[in-house]
Here is the input.
Amino acid sequence: MAQSDIHDVAKAAGVSISTVSRAFTRPELVSDKTRRKVLQAADQLDYNISRSAGALKMGQTYRVALLMNEGITSWFNAATLAGIESVMHPAGYDISLFQHIDTAETRRAFFTELPIRRNVDAVFVASFAIDPYEVEQLGRANVPIIGINTPSFEGFDASISIDDEEGMFRATQHLISLGHRHIVYVCSASETSMNASIDARGRGFVRACKASAPQRDLDWQVLTVQRGPGFIDAALAALIALDRFPDAICCQMDMLAIPLIMRLQRYGHYTPKDYSIIGFDDSTYANDVNLTTIRQDPEAMGQAAARKALDLIAGRPLDLAHETVTGQLILRGTDAVHQPR
Here is the structure.
């Protein structure tokens, strides 16, 4: 039996050959009803369009890259990918993941090779800035660069980010307003080769404390522990080792706050009776443990970034190339008015 071709599919679906091609490669240009007819005919005829042929004709690969400074299993990256995929996949694009772009070596290798391979139509960069060399290399590839939660939009054609510094500033102000005076910010050390958005949260904490210290007789400090698999245990040890246990704790992220709540109970410290604690992200399990936190929505940011990418790939102007969203304070049960003892 001869293999079916695009002409057979067009005839079976009652549409033109160009409509069949668009149904596979540019589905946003075809009505849902027409696309369903084409896909049904293609399925019955066991036909698959050649993406490589379409790419050669249109000068596109129908592939985008997502660069992450951590692995895909992290809450933020998984949600970001889901958002990008929900927009790019219906538009006919595949997503190539590049995980753990977190050392000078891995970054140099990626940004040096991309212009030579030129095998993507756009690049998403999640949660870290790119330096002038990397900007130059991406520019040689002549593809749009879209930042997601990056500390600055320099070098990006478009971006969408949460204001990490302002979010932690508000979180700290909230604890101060509850009467807390001995406040500790717990965080992981900055990676020297990265300019990660999460590091801005510490600046928000310091700014809030400095602004309130003269009027409130505030005692505050930053506890920094090394990044890596053992950073939660290191943070716990640093807190327990303090001469005086704090009455409030700001955590760099929920994935630090949640285990600290559980482990501090072993040492007789219960929230909110003995201390208040606040996280950042409103990630998985934050609601389950009743954690007060700052909410961000990486899935929505991924969707917004993907829509910007499609416009840039198509040469359409952007109404707003760079967006900054504000985190929302989510009040739950791990904060309370401070009762001096």
